[in-house]
Write a structure and sequence with these properties.
It is built from ten helices and six strands, in the order βαααααβαβαβαβαβα. The protein has about 220 residues and is α/β, with parallel strands linked by helices. The chain binds 6-O-phosphono-beta-D-glucopyranose and magnesium ion (MG). This is Beta-phosphoglucomutase.
Length: about 220
């Protein structure tokens, strides 16, 4: 396979902001009398702000109790808290292996594209010192959310790449499903039992195992390609 682009999720792949999303949602949920735990949080990973709120309200059986206006306020409160947690974010918070992988891709002229559902993504990349390391950043606004394939297909399009020759990297079950729906090779970062069940072609427990060589080897070993 001639690799044409690598599409990166952000939260939980490039840095640990997935944890901040969890903490901020947990606090917001508690304020309205809903308990969420880490197992439930797996269903929020990769999911947009408003859809995550919907899922929390349904989980707490309170979805009938809030008007659209109140939901917008709850989502805004969560985001305010989340953004405050980002205050100390700096280049040393980039997960291990990511800067090296971006360097290897650049060296081999393989575009790296950001395919995150987060509206905070540009600001986070800026804080991490990675803003100029991506060929393109997909704007999630108006694009159907993961697990729909659209954000990954848009990323491939921006890079001028054929989806069949793209690799997507994700920590979320919905993200892995989206990559597979886009007919790309799916690399999971996290637990094999969760991400494998969602269709990941390979799962690493840490980004330290990511490199251009390891990715190409994984693709080569995959009999379906
Ligand atoms: C995804 C996260 O990357 O972005 C989700 O996995 C989050 O947890 C989503 O809800 C939207 O993020 P934001 O920053 O726009 O609220
Ligand atoms: Mg993620």
């Amino acid at each position: 396979m001639k690799l044409q682009a690598v599409l990166f999720d952000l939260d939980g792949v490039i840095t640990d902001t997935a944890e901040y999303h969890y903490l901020a949602w947990k606090q917001m949920a508690e304020q309205i009398g809903i308990e969420i735990d880490r197992a439930f949080n797996e269903q929020l990973k990769g999911i947009s702000r408003m859809e995550s709120l919907e899922r929390i309200l349904v989980h707490g059986r309170k979805d009938g109790q809030y008007s659209m206006e109140q939901r917008r306020q709850l989502a805004a409160d969560k985001n305010k808290h989340y953004v405050s947690l980002l205050a100390g974010l700096a280049p040393e918070h980039v997960y291990p292996g990511i800067v090296e992988l971006l360097g290897q891709l650049a060296e081999h002229h393989v575009p790296a594209v950001l395919t995150s559902a987060s509206k905070n993504a540009p600001q986070i990349l800026e804080s991490l010192g990675l803003a100029d390391r991506f060929y393109a950043i997909v704007d999630p606004d108006g694009i159907p959310g993961k697990p729909a394939p659209d954000i990954f297909l848009k990323g491939a399009e921006l890079a001028g790449a054929d989806p069949r020759y793209c690799i997507g990297i994700e920590d979320a079950q919905a993200g892995i499903e989206a990559i597979k729906a886009a007919r790309m090779f799916a690399v999971g970062i996290g637990k094999p039992e969760l991400l494998g069940a969602s269709g990941a072609d390979i799962v690493y427990d840490s980004t330290v195992k990511l490199s251009l060589t390891s990715l190409l080897q994984a693709v080569k070993q995959d009999s379906s390609l």
